[in-house]
Amino acid sequence: MPAMPLLTGPKIRPMTEKDIDQLLIIEVASFSAPWTREHFVAELDAQYSFPYVAAADDVVVGYLCMMSLFEEAQILDIAVAPDQRGRGIARLLMDHAISVAREKGAELLSLEVRASNIAAINLYERSGFVRTGLRQKYYENREDAVLMEKRLLDKCC
To answer: Which residues participate in catalysis according to the annotation?
Structure first.
């Protein structure tokens, strides 16, 4: 299947239930243990959840699910449509996550990523995240998860 052209630059907006069918296509193409429709519906309904999509001309090309509670925020799920990767969409979503976390008063933004996902790890490191730990055999009891964090507030005095 040829790559879908990106008609206009994607805009970040809050996720809605009508986006879920498009999200599931990206999710299944991106992860070996994908979230279900129920996962996304739960994110839409959760008080401390902040789900967003990157959409170009009403086509969802990427998404971000994050939570923020008190001084900590966490990226729970982030993906870009395979035929749209390499166009800066993931960076746009990461920048938005950082901005939202700061708006919510978080001092720390964390995430976990498959140790084999070098492209994602590189993106996170370029976004200022540092590796803080490892969860062995976290994914499907086979693959390690790299824990990463970004400090959002500088300590002073």
So the answer is: 112, 124
